[in-house]
Amino acid sequence: MNILVFLLVGLIAGWLAGQISQGKGYGCIGNILIGVLGAFVGGFVLDLLNINLGGGEIVNAIITSLIGALTLIFITRIIT
């Protein structure tokens, strides 16, 4: 069950990042990949900055994944 929640959070975060960055999503698989990678990047960045998000567990995970996904998209746009 945890893997389904993880994938759902990744899907939501990836979709939100796509909406914010380019106005459309990256497709189901792309959204999940961006969201899951964003979860790792967001967790790392927020831990480095010593930021602890309050709120519910799922909401916290979505916000952290969204921050990481937007960071990931921003970095890839700079590189390309």
**Low confidence ranges:** none
Element pattern in H and E: HHH
Biggest sheet overview: none
Number of helices: 3
Q: Helix fraction?
A: over 70%
Structural class: mainly alpha
- Report the sheet-strand fraction: under 5%
Mean pLDDT value: 90
Radius of gyration: 12 Å
- What form results from the Cα inertia axes? globular
Can you tell me the number of structural domains? 1
How many strands appear in the DSSP assignment? 0
Q: End-to-end span in angstroms?
A: 37 Å
Oligomer: single chain
3D architecture notes:
The structure is a single chain. With 80 residues, the protein is mainly α. It has one domain (2-79). The protein is 81% helix and 0% strand. The protein has three helices and no strands. It has helices at residues 2-22, 28-48, 57-79. Helix 1 crosses helix 2 (28-48) and helix 1 (2-22) crosses helix 3. It is globular and about 30 Å long. The termini are far apart. The mean pLDDT is 90.
